[in-house]
Design a protein that fits this description.
alpha/beta; Aspartate Aminotransferase, domain 1; six-stranded mixed β-sheet; three-stranded antiparallel β-sheet; binds pyridoxal-5'-phosphate
Length: 290
């Protein structure tokens, strides 16, 4: 909802959003950008979640012309979910921001996991947020609150966002208990995120040792581990079922890919159990393929 409300609050009806093509708003939010915010969007090619600057340069346009829409918004996502929790380098974010500013286009950061990005970069969330006009982030996910996302921006922007939150049915008079958990998340959970990054790395290293095609541990920067099971010949959905039978919950995120997530309740013992379960399922595959 915070992404959708951010889009609505930025929306310049009919304008175009420029966003890296595998971003969460395009792949997992049911086209809210077009369906509800009435914005056109262009998914730009990217590498590890970072849009190609050349493509951005080519497509950014300050104003509508006879045959092309103007750019209403540039959107970045960090850490990047589909890119396996990859962190956008600050230098990249700065270049995107400069290009956008040169064209008087605002920038939004989908920082659902911005504190993970900050931990991985050894910096603060503020340093990352500087590269956008507005930011959304979650207190759920690695920060452990049961629910909740926040939008940051100018007072004028957040007032507009409050209006759109009401429009999409998100107004709540009883938000105190939810906010209380969110405050605990921000005050107490940020500092421990590097632990999750350590367990994710340990998991990736273990899975890589079972079969090198599954994941390159060097690409694991934060708490997400995207694992290819293609070499097993069995699809990710089947793997998910087999892993569940062994006490490990892991979601398929593409036909041949699983997405493991580490968090406050996953320590070294749980990771080792998951590696053991994975090795077990990998063996079934070897047996069945002869
Ligand atoms: C990058 C990104 N943005 C936004 C969201 C949305 O968060 P929620 O599931 O709390 O709506 C997610 C969820 O996975 C995400 O990965």
């Amino acid at each position: 909802m915070s992404n959708l409300v951010s889009l609505l609050a930025h929306a310049d009806r009919g304008g175009e959003v420029l966003v890296e093509g595998t971003s969460h708003i395009l792949t997992a939010e049911l086209g809210g950008v077009a369906n509800l915010a009435a914005m056109f969007y262009r998914g730009l090619p990217g590498k590890r979640g970072a849009m190609e600057l050349e493509a951005l340069r080519e497509h950014i346009r300050p104003r509508i012309s006879r045959n092309q829409l103007g750019t209403a918004l540039v959107w970045m996502e960090t850490t990047h979910n589909a890119a396996g929790g990859a962190v956008l380098p600050l230098a990249h974010m700065a270049e995107v921001q400069t290009l956008a500013r040169d064209h008087a286009v605002p920038v939004h950061i989908d920082g659902a996991r911005i504190f993970n990005a900050a931990a991985a970069l050894g910096t603060s969330a503020q340093e990352i947020a500087k590269h956008g006009d507005t930011v959304s982030f979650c207190v759920s996910k690695g920060l452990s609150a049961p629910v909740g996302s926040l939008i940051c921006g100018t007072r004028e922007f957040t007032e507009r966002a409050r209006g759109f939150r009401r429009m999409v049915g998100g107004n709540m008079r009883q938000a105190g208990p939810i906010a209380a958990a969110g405050i605990v998340a921000i005050e107490n959970m940020v500092e421990r995120l590097p632990e999750d990054h350590g367990t994710a790395k340990r998991l990736a290293t273990g899975l890589h040792a079972i079969d090198a095609s599954t994941v390159d541990p060097a690409t694991v920067e934060t708490n997400l581990v995207r694992v290819s099971v293609r070499a097993s010949g069995r699809k990710a959905a089947e793997w998910s079922t087999e892993m569940k039978q062994r006490g490990v919950l892991v979601s398929p995120c593409a036909t041949w890919d699983l997405r493991f997530v580490t968090h406050r309740h996953i320590g070294g013992a749980e990771v080792d159990h998951a590696i053991g379960a994975f090795a077990d399922v990998w063996k079934i595959k070897s047996r069945s393929s002869g």
